[in-house]
Amino acid sequence: LNNELDKLEKLKTVSELAASISHEVRNPLTVAKGFLQLLKEPNLTDQDRTHYLNIAVDALNQAESRITDYLTFAKPSLENIKILDLHQELIYIEKFIGPYAAMNNVQIEVQLEEDIYIAGEDQKLHQCLINIMKNGIESMPQGGKLLIELRRVGDNAMITVTDTGIGMDEEQLERMGSPFFTTKDIGTGLGTMVVYSIVKTMRGEITVKSEIGKGTSFSVLLPLAEISLS
Ligand code: ADP
Ligand code: MG
């Protein structure tokens, strides 16, 4: 964890980050605008028209995902704290991520204990776990299995997400979580930064194990709420 906290300490200041994000968002918006303007051309073939529209939509998707990743990071404060039933929350998240998994030939398997409660903000928890699961799914371009586990470990809840994907080497593991580190063509390199930031505000810990060609396992340890301790 110290290593992860170090990474957060080393983050650029928020204003520097905001400046680079606005740049990261402006670029795809400029692309989208340019291709939408091309559509005004009267003598376009249907093929060109579709091509320009696809480019514009891709660029807008890129801008959107950059903003989504960033806004969660920029506001990591824990307002609206509620008691969350993790079994229920994980079933909700599994349903949410299901179509994306199916689209990528990934089978989801769940092993969830019941009666595990934490205090936290449901949307932040969702964003954090969805970012981890999305990465797991994206690490399996030929399909595979995503295992989602929930169990109680002492006074903590442990959520583990394991994929059978491409895995990471030492250097990748080290760099993961730094802003803009991505190995994907249209990645933002912000997803795991948001994950670490949310887990930190929830006073949790993250452990990552990975092996090239075998897969990756993300474990999030979160302190239980009083209700499940009694
Ligand atoms: P992005 O998904 O946009 O690339 P992230 O911050 O979510 O940004 O992830 C950063 C990088 O960490 C990814 O590009 C990938 O190289 C690596 N990574 C994260 N999770 C996994 C995983 N489950 N398997 C393999 N690589 C991963
Ligand atoms: Mg990601």
From TrEMBL:
GO molecular function ontology, one term from the record: phosphorelay sensor kinase activity
Coiled-coil region: none
Top-level taxon: Bacteria
Membrane topology per record: Multi-pass membrane protein
Signal peptide as annotated in the record: none
Keyword Membrane: yes
GO BP annotations, alphabetical order: cell wall organization
Alphabetically ordered keywords of this record: ATP-binding, Cell membrane, Kinase, Membrane, Nucleotide-binding, Phosphoprotein, Transferase, Transmembrane, Transmembrane helix, Two-component regulatory system
Domain Histidine kinase: 20-226
Reaction(s) the record says it catalyses: ATP + protein L-histidine = ADP + protein N-phospho-L-histidine
GO cellular component: plasma membrane
Subcellular location(s) per record: Cell membrane
Enzyme Commission number(s) from the entry: 2.7.13.3
Name listed for the protein in its UniProt record: histidine kinase
Organism: Domibacillus aminovorans
Section of the entire sequence shown: 196 to 425 of 425
